Fold this protein.
Amino acid sequence: MPIRDFTDHDWPQVWPIIRDVVRSRETFPYDPTMTEDDARSTWIESPPGRTTVFDDGRVRGTAKMSANRPGPGAHIATASFMVAADARGRGVGTALAEDALAWARGTGFAGMQFNAVAESNESAVRLYQCLGFKVLGTVPRAFEHPARGRVGLHLMYLEF
């Protein structure tokens, strides 16, 4: 599997993926005016968290993972994934998600929680459900989709 830990050398290929995903406003609740510096400080995790890339000769996707909350909530992991537009539907997101789950289990987390999955991101919702995640609840109309208007944000969870 061509997934490896992020290095500084990867940033010139990771930034366009983040920029395009965020500016499309279709899947991530990040500010579409996010600067490159803001994106880097938001996306790159410090240990014990982890940032990865899917690299098959070119970076096609990236993931970040860490504890969902500090202190008493630190036993639950979280993760986020972004895939380049020309690599979607080719297994990159699945590979990144499976890698993040393996990392979380191997690190001793008790489960993984996704805090804000846009219900309009149907391919991601299906993937996460295939991996065993359940929708615990949905905040109605919490995400402003550019074409669909306000849609819900799912809270999704998988207990290990």
Remarks:
- The chain is about 30% helix and 35% strand.
